[in-house]
Amino acid sequence: MTGSFFTHFGMGTHYGSSATVAWQQLIFNWGYISPGSMYIVGHRGARSPGPENTCKAVRYAMRCAEYVEVDIRLSRDRVPVIMHDPTIDRTTNGSGRVADMTYGELSALDAGEGEHVPSLMEVCSLVRGICGLFVEIKEPGSELEVCKILDKEAPSPLLVVSFHRASLEMVSEMLPGTATGFIYSRPVPDAPTMASRKNIRVILPRSDLLTPELVADAQSRDIEVVPWTLDDLELWEKAKKMGVDGFVSDNPCSARQWLEGAG
To answer: What is the pTM assigned to this prediction?
Structure first.
């Protein structure tokens, strides 16, 4: 089978391959991005300025980061929405499970500072042509709905990331050529070898799992290393010294200021 799952079955237009090429070449050069430089990924948009995973946080991150990362869950009517937790209690003025509410109900909530809960489609439209997007699949079983949106609306460059390797494999099957990244918070034996075998382009270790040996091994296999979440000078300098390809930060504009000063 050639083309995406959706193209083959008449379900949309595939953008995965062009997104991958753009991601690899970093063609959206803004003057301070160049091949081989360390890039910044805004975590949940820009979590520290807040409110996380809202359009306001995404717009803030777009000022300073090459990529914006958002978390995806499904509403009761199976619309991919931007939400980190399985419940809405921590980040909105409501309570209950995301999966028990329709998109209409979720979008009517206050997600902080008057912001609403956005959809994946809305965020794709917001960042398109300005910066790249990391889409984190939080829930196994949501891959089809996420890929339907990305097949039609994906910005470029795009990376789909997850803690769930099976989810990444499904994305690769449905959107061939789309770059994927594996997130992990516990030691993964020989993670670069696993990533290379699974055609995963990026590994995203928690910052305390980062070592010079890991970075060297991954990069020797053309696997990029992007640790999370780096929010202070000590961690930024450690990552730079190790030669990581990029890093995830809650406050990408503070990270940008440091990076430009660090040369």
So the answer is: 0.89
